[in-house]
Design brief:
CATH topology of the largest domain: Isopropylmalate Dehydrogenase
CATH architecture of the largest domain: 3-Layer(aba) Sandwich
Strand order of the largest sheet: 2-1-3-12-11-4-5-10-8-9
Structural class: alpha/beta
Helix content: 25-40%
Radius of gyration: 20 Å
CATH class of the largest domain: Alpha Beta
Number of helices: 12
Number of strands: 12
Shape: globular
CATH superfamily of the largest domain: Isopropylmalate Dehydrogenase
Length: 367
Amino acid sequence: MTQRTHSVLLLPGDGVGVEVVREAVKVLERAAELFGFSLSFTRLPVGGEAIDQTGHPLPPETLQAAKDADAVLLGAVGGPKWDDLPTDKRPEAALLGLRESLGLFANLRPAILFDELAHASTIREEVIRGIDIMVIRELNRGIYFGTPRGISGEKGERVGINTLSYSEPEIERIARVAFQIARGRKKKVTSVDKANVLESMALWREVVVRIHKDYPDVELEHMYVDNCAMQLIRRPAEFDTILTTNLFGDILSDEAAMLTGSIGMLASASLGGAGDGGAIFGMYEPVHGSAPDIAGSDIANPLATILSAAMMLEYSLGETEAARAVEQSVRSAVREGLRTADIATQGESISTTSDMGDEIVKRLSLD
């Protein structure tokens, strides 16, 4: 029987991205060995690393390799070294370029509270217990991409313009992703908009209501973004799947992440259209940034990247059993008291980045 083979483009990027991607690769290689598939890895520069090598944050070779791969695993981009560059030349421009060029329109950001880490949140434990939220953010349209945009006029009287626009097909495709994801969870979608004052958001709500008719088994509620921001703090455990726009999702997913108290534990997936065999192309990355102040110190938390790799196994590579095994290994390590510096309390032993990766590999099994 032919062994399943998957091609993965590695974009470690800048800062701690190099270290955390290294640990995720360890885990992926062990998962492939256990579950009977093979992985072909290609590593290329992106972000600041690419600027230093080629003068551009997203070299054509990197973009083409991303298009040719089954999935992309990204570490992090950016750092003070490149802060003075023009916006379109900075490391972060690579992320927008990848999202737009690869058609990555759906960003999935789970915010899951590990009970053992509840003390790390600034919110009372009785409020955050049981948090398991999936924020689904429309990723490559909305105000970040709308035109016209720019700054015009004479100095002292200049006007800055950004355009918030969504077409019906753009809303429909992200709504379908949300309802499909919700079907595998608690079957509840909270669609977040500002339909009371924005015409684009009135259309958003109208289309979401129409698409919901195709998913009668899923509950739908609507919430204005300001109320949602408040309710995420007041009663976060009542949310399941949150569907929202690019701008609102950018803000709300960070808020949901910080409820858990540890950004170093949070994964993300950016998905595009379905490919051959129903696989979904995606780019996977931890929520945290490049943390240049600790880069090279072997103290960064690799669990967010390892959990992002688990999402990659599930959504893009179709290796669901392996994905569950990786997730279980992470839970086991946390339950047994393994801690990197960012999630350790006073008196707890601290694992290095590489030690944590090794411990996850040890716990991987077919059970």
